[in-house]
Amino acid sequence: MSLSARAETNAKRTGTALIWQIIQNLWEPTTNPLGYISLGVAENLLMHDDLLAHIHANTKATSQALTYGDGTGGSKRLRASMTRFLTKHLRPVEPIQSQHITVTNGCSSAIEHMSWAIANPGEGFLLGQPYYGTFKDDITLRTDAHLVPVPFHGIDPLGREAVAKYEEALLKSQENGVKIAGLLLCHPHNP
Ligand SMILES: Cc1ncc(COP(=O)(O)O)c(C=O)c1O
């Protein structure tokens, strides 16, 4: 079986990221003492015991979880819960509502869906530097959108002064023929 022409092109564009070879051979004191200790992923091992205790004590699957549930955008219960959580922590000017939330199977899928839905091929997304490396593939690979990096040169990436940097990058991108379709804000500590 051969790959489609577009998969062939994308496979050439992405190459082989070292992280996926490393992750298959991780150090474990008894079963894999010669494996790698990876510092290349944003996993917080210090929280595992607390998170597992919380998850085991507080979650219980119902039979509805084994069905198509409330449709493809996430259960009503999860969306209501995310609505409360995000409104509380992001303190938006207007409260977030359940219908604003769509749940996906992971962060990469969410970003790719968004890029596909918001940008026409050839349009770009602004993203502050430094950023998580796979943003580029998630935003561009299957959508033919562009990533337009925004350097801050020491300015707080979430401060007021950053607005001028975003504007500068937007205008420059438009001069280069790439219309900006959206701005992706990511926590600067990731990772
Ligand atoms: C921006 C971003 N995209 C993707 C991922 C990968 O996660 P997932 O397996 O949910 O796609 C992460 C993980 O931390 C992330 O921070």
Name its key features.
8% strand; Aspartate Aminotransferase, domain 2; 191 residues; 7 helices; mainly alpha; globular; binds pyridoxal-5'-phosphate
Q: Could you describe the 3D structure shown?
A:
With 191 residues, the protein is mainly alpha-helical. The protein has a domain of 86 residues: Type I PLP-dependent aspartate aminotransferase-like (Major domain) (Aspartate Aminotransferase, domain 2), CATH 3.40.640.10. It is 39% helix and 8% strand. It contains 7 helices and 3 strands, in the order αααααβαβαβ. A 3-stranded parallel beta sheet has the order 2-1-3. Helix 6 links the parallel strand 1 and strand 2. It is globular. It starts with a helix and ends in a 7-residue tail after the last strand. Pyridoxal-5'-phosphate binds next to helix 5.
